[in-house]
Design brief:
The complex is a heterodimer of chains A (341) and B (301). Chain A is an alpha/beta fold. In chain A, 32% of the residues lie in helices and 22% in strands. In chain A, the strands form two sheets. An eight-stranded mixed beta sheet of chain A has the order 6-7-8-3-9-10-12-11, with helices on both faces. In chain A, strand 1 (3-15) and strand 2 (21-33) form a beta hairpin. In chain A, helix 3 (110-120) packs across helix 5 (138-154) and helix 7 (173-185) runs parallel beside helix 8 (203-219). The longest helix of chain A has 17 residues, at 138-154. With 301 residues, chain B is mainly α. Chain B is built from twelve helices and no strands. Chain A binds chain B through residues 56, 58, 61, 86-91, 94-95, 97, 99, 102-108, 116-117, 121-122, 124-126, 155-159, 162, 166, 170-172, 174-175, 178, 180, 183-184, 187, 205, 208, 212, and chain B through 10-15, 17-18, 21, 130, 193-195, 197-205, 208, 212-213, 216-217, 219.
Chain lengths: 341, 301
């Protein structure tokens, strides 16, 4: 499989109100092959969404990339100007957002939301006259409407002919998310980034949405970066998984391998925190994420780690190979610990 | 048919078909009807606009709007022939008030159109792009905002000489700042909305987002602001006319009419009372309607 997207040693941070440099992501490296699905997992605030926004080039204004590279088909995206980046959003990569209900513009019908995407996606500097041309052309309007209905049908929305004329507030969360998936897939993107697409939905709908995403992505051999804090979903969907903690990747490898035999205490802790029907008392991970302003030289997880030793405070453990199938973990005790999942 | 049931679930029919929507304007009218004050406002506004449009045809003495004289009937009190009496040269006050509605509404219309066309894009651009551009635009805006609008308009009118186009230009120049501020504030929070980010990641340009995604969301606040402001602009236009720096005689502008009748108080009270009442009712009407629209559109957000 050829590599489609490669994130290498990405560092992202911001300067806070007191002028102190705060690091949010450090040394993030990911690779995504054509048709592959990777999952970024970790608890809230560990940098999953920031990573995806960096790839999409829509970081918040106060965040800056301090170093590293994001290569898409060999081109470094960080060196592109905004217009060139804009042309890639849609045809190259798109986002299925986390909050379906607020991700559609409330004043436009579903059909109107699709209009510009079908007419202009992937193009930059569309002039005012050109912008109005398809709107004034009856045949073109009709063709765009037909294309919209077809796109809605592809994501199994019922009666798409009626749905095109509805406003977002007339849709349920599940319907909105299907509409957004249809919009994301419209430009036939090479990479779909799904940022916890089911979090705002109830579990049965979430399962349907994930099935739909998986089916559409497989049908077109599209690659996907799936962001979630739900390890169950990650294990079902992803070929490979990246476990993130406090702005770093602490463990990565083939999904089955990582979940069956985790080598980092954080991954093991997350797996234990998945509720199961057993007699055992529920085990979570004690404590919370460290303040990104208060990181020191040592392992960021040692405060919460049940296996921490004095040496953990000494230096940051590198992400080392723990098996020859690409399974890596960033823990100095990765090889000696007996971790159960 | 067990198979069909499964197919239905799998095809995403989670919550059944949505019922046929009632047209938005009917919901709006029903809501408005529940508030008597808004209905009074709506009635006054519709009546004023109707009179303004058809004044030359429905006024009893349409020729009296201009510089005619009829000394035989000067300073007549209200009667069946002249409901609002006649002025110092014998012109019918009712006719002049009716034609005066045209001038006041015309000033308000052009001022609001200009103020919206200048103010709203500036506010949105300042909010969406921010940075030094936003700072420069909003500081300019604040400079205009710092000068009381009446003083500003008086200065411009005195400088350029009083006439209808100058009045319209001067008030617009004082008024765009309010629309810029409103659009700025709204756009500032709208640009953080998820749908703006969704548009961005699907390849929309800054201009497309600012004017294709954010601007349409301003419609309801703009409608309310425009309705309320029409009243205030009419008031300002009348004040200018009263001070002699607005529209010039013999045009039957309400402010001028009040000013002209001032010398005849208290004997010929009808000369000032009826134009004054016209100003009062029109401003009140637009305000009541604006408040009603505010409740109506605000509650739906």
């Amino acid at each position: 499989m050829s590599t489609l997207l490669e994130v290498e040693d990405l560092d992202i941070g911001f300067r806070d109100a007191d002028g102190v440099e705060v690091t949010l992501l450090s040394g993030i490296s990911l690779s995504l092959a054509r048709g592959e699905i990777i999952a970024l997992v970790g608890e809230s605030g560990c940098g999953k969404s920031v990573t995806s926004k960096a790839v999409l080039g829509v970081l918040a204004d106060n965040l800056s990339v301090r170093g590293g590279a994001i290569r898409f088909e060999g081109r470094d995206l960080l060196e592109l100007d905004e217009a060139a980046y804009q042309a890639l959003r849609g045809p190259a990569f798109t986002l299925v957002p986390q909050h379906p209900l607020s991700s559609l513009n409330p004043v436009f019908t579903v059909g109107e939301q699709f209009f510009d995407l079908i007419a202009f996606q992937g193009r930059t500097r569309v002039g005012a006259i050109e912008y109005w041309r398809p709107r004034l052309n009856r045949a073109r309007r009709h063709a765009i409407r037909e294309r919209t209905i077809e796109a809605l049908r592809e994501v199994s929305l019922p009666s798409p002919e009626e749905l095109v004329d509805r406003y977002p507030l007339q849709l349920s969360g599940g319907q909105s998310q299907r509409v957004l998936i249809a919009m994301a897939l419209l430009g036939d993107p090479k990479i779909v980034i799904a940022d916890e697409p089911g979090t705002a939905l109830d579990v049965t709908i979430e399962a349907q949405i994930n099935d739909l995403l998986l089916e559409r992505v497989h049908a077109r051999n599209t690659s996907m970066i799936y962001i979630t804090h739900d390890l169950g979903i990650a294990s079902q969907l992803a070929d490979r998984v990246y476990v993130m903690y406090a702005g770093r990747v602490v463990e990565d490898g083939p999904t089955g391998r990582v979940f069956a035999a985790p080598r980092h205490p954080y991954t093991a802790g997350l797996l234990k925190a998945v509720p199961k029907v057993t007699d055992e008392p529920f085990a979570g991970i004690r404590g919370t994420l460290p303040d990104p302003k208060a990181v020191d030289a040592g392992c960021a997880f040692r405060w919460r780690c049940p296996h921490a030793v004095d040496a953990c405070a000494g230096s940051l453990p590198p992400l080392d190979q723990v098996a020859d199938d690409g399974h890596r973990a960033a823990c100095i005790r990765a090889r000696e610990l007996e971790l159960s999942s | 048919m067990a198979d069909d049931a499964n197919v239905t679930i799998a095809s995403g029919l989670e919550d059944g078909p949505v019922s046929k929507a009632v047209p938005t304007w009917r919901i709006a009218l029903e809501t408005l009807r529940k508030s008597p004050l808004s209905m009074i406002g709506l009635f006054i506004v519709v009546a004023v606009i109707f009179i303004a449009i058809f004044a030359p045809w429905i006024a009893p003495f349409p020729d009296d709007a201009g510089a005619t004289v009829n000394f035989a009937e000067r300073l007549q009190p209200p009667s069946w022939k002249h409901w609002f009496g006649t002025d110092i040269v014998g012109r019918d006050v009712l006719s002049r008030v009716m034609v005066g509605a045209r001038i006041s509404l015309m000033i308000a219309f052009f001022v609001i159109v200009l103020a919206v066309l200048i103010g709203v894009p500036i506010g949105i651009i300042a909010a969406y792009w921010g940075g030094w551009l936003g700072n420069v635009l909003m500081r300019i805006n604040e400079v205009f905002l710092a000068i009381p609008s009446l003083v500003f308009v008086l200065a411009v009118a005195a400088l350029l000489g009083p006439s209808l186009p100058v009045v319209i230009a001067a008030i617009s120049l004082a008024w765009w700042t309010w629309f810029a501020r409103l659009a700025y504030g709204e756009a500032l929070h709208l640009k953080e909305e998820q749908f703006v980010e969704a548009a961005r990641v699907s390849g929309a340009s800054g201009l497309r987002i600012a004017f294709g995604e954010i601007l349409p969301n301003l419609t309801s606040v703009l409608i309310v602001k425009i309705t309320l402001d029409i009243g205030y602009v009419i008031l300002l236009g009348a004040a200018l006319g009263f001070l002699g720096l607005g529209v010039q005689p013999p045009d039957p502008e309400w402010g001028i009419m009040v000013a002209e009748g001032r010398d005849q108080l208290p004997n010929a009270w009808w000369l000032t009372t009826f134009p004054g009442l016209a100003i009062f009712l029109t401003v009140i009407g637009f305000n009541l309607l604006g408040d009603g629209l505010n409740d109506l559109l605000g509650a739906r957000q």
